[in-house]
Write a structure and sequence with these properties.
Chain lengths: 379, 72
């Protein structure tokens, strides 16, 4: 996976649409297999799949099964739909431009440290109406929490401290926003009443998930986008010369560089899937990364082909657990690519740098993507 | 010819109304609904097919054979 993802995904697909590995874990690798499982969330349970994380909070809504799940999404989905993201766009564009301007004159940058790690945190703070000055603190906690090497090993002291600090921070601003609401997402969640009202613990669980799942994933996608473009001058020039090419490129990026290539489920009961019998209590992985390279669906499964951008993909998963932040993430990626290429159309990997994907891992990413480019000339 | 959105399958990916706003629009959940009766003119048939292909859930269907007067 680290060296040749095309070969790795092809090999996995060759083992079948539905297969079981030596550890007893079931893999669903085709378009049909992941769709069938995603349509039966009451059998392919997320609640039991995420319980190994033993987080101090109930993760909402990813670790909630139907029917309770629908209540949370009914409140959350309207707040992150495309029409709402449209309203945020001018401010989000201004912020990404500011981040890029900070290094555009320098002739070099570290994409992850100077852009990809910072921007999604700022977007979250903006969405929640929190000060951007909290950015570096919040980014650091997320890094420490997600850098835990193995889920089975006991968390380090640093990890435990970061988790507690994050919870304290979130509890603090929930109380502050309850006392003094603003025009932001957390205030709108706090304003829900009657049957739709959320408890503080529910708000903490949902906010924790938004921070843990929403910041790192976009960071990783930005790193993957710039690696791909820095190593493909022809594609880079197309994007730099025509911003209309960016949305289809983003779709192909989400398809090929699926940041969360596997998502877990646990079966609640015995189930038949495409002729295979999966027993109750089986661990199942929806291999979205494999389904996104399904040869029966994509003529050019392993390469960027902008004409495939309309074919749909599972970059944001499928079924009722479809990524809540998908519309925001798409917009962040588009704005980053538009504003970067407007300022820096020519660039390449810094000489001597060899970014590598670390694998195995939960998410696909490059730890760093150092770029060099001609210094921008101001008139 | 007519397009339909299966509301039990739609989970709000938003691809159809983003790619083909002439045939689909979003509701207040960000889920998709067909505009009007969903009837599709010959001119919009390729766009309808595009929406069908783009839906990761298989929630959008396009019936080429349904006559226009079936709408009533």
């Amino acid at each position: 996976m680290a060296q040749d993802r095309a070969a790795a995904w092809d090999e996995m697909r060759s083992w079948g649409d539905v297969f079981q590995d030596a550890d007893g874990v079931w893999y669903l690798t085709s378009t049909e297999a992941v769709q069938l499982a995603a349509r039966q969330p009451e059998i392919f349970s997320s609640a039991r799949a995420w319980d190994f994380q033993s987080s101090e909070v109930q993760q909402i809504p990813n670790a909630i099964d139907p029917p309770a799940h629908a209540r949370y999404r009914r409140s959350l989905d309207p707040m992150l739909r495309p029409a709402i993201v449209n309203g945020l766009e001018p401010e989000l564009r201004r912020q990404v431009a500011e981040l890029i301007d900070a290094f555009a004159d320098r002739g070099s940058c570290n994409i992850v440290a100077e852009l990809a790690a910072l921007y999604p945190t700022q977007v979250f703070l903006t969405l929640y109406g929190l000060p951007l000055s909290d950015r570096d603190m919040l980014t650091r906690w997320v890094r420490v929490i997600l850098d835990r090497p193995h889920i089975d090993t006991a968390p380090s002291e640093e990890h435990t401290e970061a988790t507690h600090a994050l919870f304290g921070y979130v509890r603090g601003f929930i109380n502050a926003k309850r006392a003094a609401p603003g025009d932001d997402m957390i205030s709108r969640l706090l304003a829900l009443d009657g049957d739709d009202a959320w408890t503080n613990e529910e708000l903490l669980g949902a906010t924790y998930v938004m921070i843990i799942a929403g910041l790192d994933t976009v960071r990783n996608a930005i790193s993957l986008a710039f690696y791909r473009l820095a190593t493909d001058p022809q594609l880079r020039r197309r994007i730099a010369s025509d911003p209309e090419v960016i949305p289809p490129f983003v779709e192909e990026l989400l398809r090929l560089d699926t940041v969360a290539p596997f998502l877990p489920r646990v079966t609640i009961q015995d189930v038949e899937l495409l002729g295979r019998h999966i027993p109750a209590s089986s661990r199942v992985l929806l291999a979205f990364g494999a389904a996104n390279r399904d040869k029966s669906r994509y003529a050019c499964p392993h390469a960027v082909d902008l004409s495939q951008a309309d074919l749909g993909h599972f970059g944001f998963g499928a079924g009722v657990h479809r990524c809540l932040g998908s519309h925001l993430a798409r917009r962040e990626l588009r704005l980053v690519l538009e504003e970067f290429h407007r300022r820096i159309p020519e660039y390449e990997l810094a000489p001597g740098s060899e970014p590598r994907i670390e694998w195995p891992a939960v998410t696909l990413t490059y730890a760093e993507v150092p770029l060099v480019f001609p210094r921008s000339v101001h008139p | 010819m007519r397009v339909r959105v299966d509301e039990l399958r739609c989970v709000g990916h938003g691809r159809c109304y983003s790619l083909v706003p002439e045939l689909f629009e979003d509701d207040d959940q960000g889920h998709s609904v067909v505009r009007g009766t969903g009837l599709v003119s010959a001119e919009h048939a390729p766009a309808a097919e595009r929406a069908v292909r783009g839906c990761p859930e298989g929630a959008v269907t396009f019936d080429r054979d349904e006559p226009a007067d079936a709408a009533s």
